[in-house]
Design goal:
Elements lengths: L2 H17 L8 H4 L6 H29 L11 H8 L16 E2 L7 E2 L1 H6 L1
Antiparallel strand pairs: 1-2
Length: 120
């Protein structure tokens, strides 16, 4: 291959790249092209440009998708999940000093304040 051949290959590949007249990189059609085919170089240029634009996002997604997951048996059992889902007993409302009054649930218009609690 002569130096002029490389320039001609590059010029042809660049014109094909801008015309979008090449197969998708690594496709069967692309793999069947000869090593000196400018369409093959144009496909590689397209793949390199896409990697430059989107490579970081793709790399991050691949890292997250392929990260080792904890084994399923390390999670909580169905009995533990059922126990956690059970309703908890209610607690006594207590007003906190310096905070606004608390609306008493089920009793519209009634509020609990810290001063009321201290008087009781």
């Amino acid at each position: 291959m002569e130096p002029g051949d490389v320039v001609a290959l590059w010029a042809s590949a660049k014109s094909l790249f801008f015309a979008h007249d090449f197969p998708t990189y690594a496709s069967l059609e692309c793999r069947q092209l000869g090593p000196d085919d400018p369409r093959r170089l144009a496909a590689a240029l397209d793949a390199a440009e896409k990697w430059r634009k989107y490579g970081t996002d793709v790399t991050q997604w691949l890292e997250e998708a392929s990260a080792p997951k904890p084994p399923i048996w390390t999670g909580r059992t169905q009995a533990e999940l059922d126990e956690a889902a059970k309703p908890k007993p209610s607690h006594v409302l207590r007003a906190t000093p310096g905070w606004p009054p608390i609306a008493v649930p089920g009793q519209p218009g009634r509020y609990l304040t810290h001063a009321q609690e201290m008087a009781a």
